[in-house]
Amino acid sequence: MTGRSSTPEPEPAHGPVREPAHQRALRAARQALRVLAVELGTPTEPGTPLLDSVRSPWLRRVPYVVAFAFAVSLLPTTITVLSHDYGLDGGMSGALATAQTVPLLLAVTRPLQAWWVIFAADVIGALALAGEDGVVGRAWPWPPMEIVGYLALMLALSLRERRRTLTAVWLTTGMAGLLSEVFTPEGSNSTWVLMFVLTGVVLMMGATLRERGDAQRKLIEQETISEAERARRTLLEERARIARELHDVVAHHMSVITVQAASAPYRISGIPREAEEEFGSIAATARESLAEMRRLLGVLRSEEAVRHDGPEKTPQPGIAMLPKLVEGTVRAGVPVELALPEEPVALEPAVDLSAYRIVQEALANVVRHAPGAPTRVSVTPAADGARLTVLVVNSAPSAPSAPLETTGTGHGLIGMRERVRLVDGSLDTGPLPDGGFRVAAQLPLPPPPYPASSLSAKDSHPA
């Protein structure tokens, strides 16, 4: 049987062949140059002005003013120094000075592209000055005005680009200075080390300032989001609390319906069989509604409340319990004057509960924010019998003192607004000129029932 054997060939006794050291170094150098090229060729947010996220329009104009000042001051200075001090040709001096200073205006929106132009112009200028006699005894390869312009560019670059790009720029500047040692004219003062050190310092300082600003900006954004989420959670908690309280009110009426419908055949004699079945269907539907409400209440109750408090079994309060509430507030150190209607007022259970809770939260706010302030509470039905006015007014505290414990169960004004909205009422709150505070709620009253005589008259005279 012919064919090639699938058995792998044994490795040499001395192990796998290792790549020579010079090849590994060459490959690492190519990889480093590739990374440098990528970082130097990928600007961050090109076209976006520096300090564009600042709210003040005056601060947003600062980079333009600074760049214009550097360009206008360095352009004639560079031309003068290159032509008179270094002896460079006038046309060449003008061209190099323009390429080294005018791109500073571009650095406001595209600092990395401006660096390419200025860095190339600086390198060309260093090569042009190497053959001039005026370089003897003077700074080379970077004259003083080029160092100033380059550092200004580094500041703009550090406020925009990421750290890897800044490192690439710094290393490129250092490599250019190191290579300049080969062409250093005799008698010149080498400035590439100074340039390398100052560039690193400016880039580090600018990057630190930018990252600190970014961190503060993100912190403000997170605080804004957290505040919005906190307000939303507070609103949801208050609505869930109101729903739990209304459960007791509605459950009471549903229980009455269930008992009346189930006991009707035993309390009323001579009811037809069809009516008995109808009463039984009503009782069954009411019981199902109660079961659904209990399940809903289980969803609305938090796990912590279910674990520690258990089901709420106390009846919901109303305006009849306001004297007891005021008495507890007075014992806490707040003088409260209460005015209630002389005659009992027929209120719907939801309105009765909302009136009590509004007064409770208003008194809790007085205890919290104005301890010891004289307070007046009044519950007054309107003359037309269409609405109920709940008014809580407190004066400014006579002397500041430590806040006392609160007795409210909701979230202050948020809870008041939600309760008023629930019963289609209105709420007016605000500070008073004397330093006090006013809470006024308008709650609807149920329409008066028709008298029996009017009902019989309607039945006897159909339309």
Automatic annotation (TrEMBL):
Family annotation (InterPro entries): HATPase_C_sf, HATPase_dom, Sensor_HK_TwoCompSys, Sig_transdc_His_kin_sub3_dim/P
TM helices/strands, residue ranges: 62-84, 142-159, 166-184, 190-209
Domain Signal transduction histidine kinase subgroup 3 dimerisation and phosphoacceptor stretches: 238-303
Keyword field: ATP-binding, Kinase, Membrane, Nucleotide-binding, Phosphoprotein, Transferase, Transmembrane, Transmembrane helix, Two-component regulatory system
Enzyme nomenclature, EC number: 2.7.13.3
Catalyzed reactions per annotation: ATP + protein L-histidine = ADP + protein N-phospho-L-histidine
MF terms (GO), sorted A to Z: kinase activity
Domain Histidine kinase/HSP90-like ATPase positions: 354-446
Region (Disordered): 1-22, 442-463
SUPFAM superfamilies, alphabetized: ATPase domain of HSP90 chaperone/DNA topoisomerase II/histidine kinase (SSF55874)
Keyword check for Metal-binding: no
CDD domains: HATPase_UhpB-NarQ-NarX-like
Broad EC category: transferase
Protein name: histidine kinase
